[in-house]
Each structure stands twice: as C-alpha cells, then as structure tokens.
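Page 37, continued from 36.
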C-alpha cells in the first residue's frame, strides 16, 4: 500500500492534520518535495506542533519517517525542529527518522539570494517565503548544489563548495553589489548544523524499496497544493518543486514503484498565501470574519492568508492533477457562522463562461460566478457520525462532492485529532 496525501488547491488545506490522523495505519511516512517554505500544523495530546521539514508522522513513535531526495533541507531549521520536538517529549533518532543522502542542502547564501531578489523586484515580487527555495532548486538543476551525503565527506564537500562559492560571488558581488560569500563561513555553518545530522543520512531508496517489498505500508506527504506545482500551478507564482501525487515515488527515491491511492485534501472554503491570481478572493469585513474564524495565518511565515469562497473550478482541476481517488474535506466547522455560503461554480473570462481552470492572462482576468447554499448556523465541532451533522451541512458536502467529481470520505470539524468523521 503506497498512498499519497496531497493538496488540491493553493496549499494550507490541512494535510499535516490528515497525515497525523491516517499515519496510525501506516508504517512509514515520507516527505518527498519542498523545504521549510510551508508548514503543517498538527494538534494532538502532546500539544500543538508546526512542522516545516519533518514528516507529520514523526508525532507517532511507532512510525518511521523519511525525508526524500526531492526535498531541499535547511540544516539549521531542521535542527531547531528536532530540538523543539525533543523538548516536548517526542523522540527523534535514526530509528524513526531517515534522511536521503541525495536530498539537497539549502545553504545560508540561498536565503540571502532569495531576499536580495525579492527586494530587487519590489512590487513585482513573486511572494517568496524568503527561505531560499527557488535559489536552491535552481542550483540543483544547475548541478551546483551540495547534498546530504556530502556531509559524510567533508574534504570533498569543501572542494565542491569552493567552486560553487566562486561562481555565486559573480552574482552576489557583480549583480547585487552585496558582501561576498566566504567558504569558511559556509563550512562553519555546515559543521555546526550538519555534523549532528550525519547519523540520520542513509540511502533511503534502498530502505524504502526493501520496505515496500516486505509489505510495509507507506504514506507520502506533500507540501503545498496542485496550484503551486512548478508545472501545473499558477506559474510563475508557484513553488519550485512538484507538488503532484505522481511525483511521490520519484521524490521519495523509489520511482520503480506505483501509487496505490491518492487522497486529496481540500478545504471547505479557499485560502491562499503569497502572490498570484486568486479568483475567489474576498476583501474587507467579509474576508476578516472568515480569516479569523479559520485562523488563516501561514504556519511557516505567520502571514495573513488571503481567503475566499470554495472554488469548484480550481478544485476540480486540482482533483484531476492529483489523480485523487478520494477527498478529505477540512475546516467544515469554520463555515458555521454563515447564513448563506457562497460557492464559485464557474469563471467569466471576457465574454465567455468557463468550467475549466485557465492559465496565464485568462486566469488573471477571470471573474467568479457564484451560487449560494444555505448555512447550518450551529456548532458542528462535536459531530463524530454522519447522522450528527445538520441537513444543510450534509447538503453542502454532497454539493462539493458532485462539483469536483470525487467522493469525500473524511470530514474534519476541528483541529483536534478526534475531530473528524468518516462519510
């Protein structure tokens, strides 16, 4: 059983919460792409945890967690996450955490370059999290990056680093007119934060291949959502990696295996962090009420999220891109304050109505077409069975199910581990 849990929309759908819930039935949880540019928030009996790099399965001591080759890893940030978990009584050791020797290291100068470029762009910025993600993925494909396995060979790593720093300084000094990078400074950072992580580094490809052949159940955890995918998202306002379920075996290190199931995570309304087109965006008091009701602030950055009505057009596209077999609907309880609930059923692009998700200028110019469903106006956070839900809430679920063309199997009615029901 190889199952991917992925985001249907712009990210922040509640994937960490669902991975934490579903990982009870799995032996291994794998993060297969991205870095610390997004966060998964998990609430359980031990407390509230925001995980930017570590797989959400780390909160279950019996689960083995893998950071795959598709990831970019800020060593300093990872050490901070591990410390926070250990301080809270969560065990982290090579027994339950394995890091791919092929995963790329996000270095301090990648963050520096991210900041320099966003500042240069000014009002035309992409809305980067300023955590070095685009620069480090660029270096990966330019074949100038360091990988986790290089930590095990410091002399060879320093030689490769010297070549990369010489190349980078052509841009840092000549382009941005900033202070040059030094090999000594980066090597000091690598020793401080990399040396303690050496014991976690291994060939996770071999480990996962053998685990799958032994019948172990593997859960793949994605970061962000389909609309932030480098190929299929709202380019150029995307992440720099593939957030798509089909990439999971590749980013995990076992491209020779196929997924058994794809579970898409979808919010009962829309939210978005960062720049780019967001057709259903609400503003003013209407947006403020929804943002506060849903606690819509970025887990990685703390930035207020843009919020809007549920978007059938974007969600149907996300379901298709993720090849979702089933959906987990999150934050249904947030809508309980509404008398009537807006749902975007189509886009108006110029003089044409469309049900298909457009790209480029068409998406930039798209206007939402709304339908309205009756609200339920009562607290549903204690509901644990389908029959506990009010009729209007059930009707809303079935409406979304039909609109996106995929069955909804889980419904979340709160942040706590037990606040969900199975349809």
């Amino acid at each position: 059983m190889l199952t991917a849990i992925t985001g249907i929309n712009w990210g922040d759908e509640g994937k960490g919460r669902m991975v934490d819930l579903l990982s009870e039935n799995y032996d291994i949880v794998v993060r297969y792409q991205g870095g610390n540019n997004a966060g998964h928030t998990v609430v359980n009996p031990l407390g509230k945890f925001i995980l930017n790099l570590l797989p959400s399965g780390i909160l279950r001591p019996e689960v083995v967690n893998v950071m795959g080759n598709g990831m970019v890893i800020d060593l300093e940030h990872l050490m901070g996450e591990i410390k926070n978990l250990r301080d809270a009584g969560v065990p982290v050791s090579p027994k339950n955490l394995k890091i791919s020797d092929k995963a790329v290291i996000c270095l301090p100068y990648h963050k520096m370059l991210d900041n320099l470029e966003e500042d240069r762009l000014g009002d035309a910025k992409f809305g980067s999290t300023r955590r070095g993600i685009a620069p480090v993925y660029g270096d990966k494909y330019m074949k100038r990056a360091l990988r986790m396995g290089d930590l095990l060979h410091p002399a060879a790593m320093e030689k490769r680093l010297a070549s990369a720093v010489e190349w980078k300084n052509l841009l840092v000094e000549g382009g941005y007119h900033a202070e040059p990078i030094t090999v000594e400074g980066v090597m000091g950072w690598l020793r401080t934060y990399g040396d303690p992580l050496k014991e976690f580094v291994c060939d996770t490809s071999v480990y996962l291949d053998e685990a799958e052949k032994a019948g172990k159940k593997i859960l793949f955890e994605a970061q962000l959502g389909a609309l932030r995918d480098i190929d299929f998202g709202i380019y150029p306002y995307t992440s720099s990696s593939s957030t798509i379920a089909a990439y999971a075996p590749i980013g995990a290190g076992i491209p020779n295996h196929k997924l058994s199931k794809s579970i898409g995570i979808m919010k009962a309304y829309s939210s978005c962090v960062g720049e780019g087109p967001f057709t259903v965006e609400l503003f003013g008091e209407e947006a403020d009420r929804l943002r506060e009701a849903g606690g819509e602030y970025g887990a990685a950055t703390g930035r207020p999220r843009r919020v809007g009505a549920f978007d059938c057009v974007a969600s149907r596209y996300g379901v298709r891109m993720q090849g979702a077999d089933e959906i987990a609907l999150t934050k249904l309880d947030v809508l309980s304050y509404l008398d009537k609930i807006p749902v975007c059923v189509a886009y108006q692009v110029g003089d044409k109505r469309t049900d298909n998700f457009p790209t480029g200028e068409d998406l930039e110019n798209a206007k939402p077409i709304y339908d309205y469903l009756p609200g339920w106006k009562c607290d549903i956070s204690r509901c644990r069975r389908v029959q506990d839900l009010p009729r209007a809430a059930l009707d809303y679920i079935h409406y979304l199910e039909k609109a996106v063309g995929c069955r909804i199997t889980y419904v979340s009615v709160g942040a706590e581990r037990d606040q969900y029901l199975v349809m």
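The longest strand covers residues 340-349. Flag for discussion at group meeting. Residues 208 and 224 are 23 Å apart (CA to CA).
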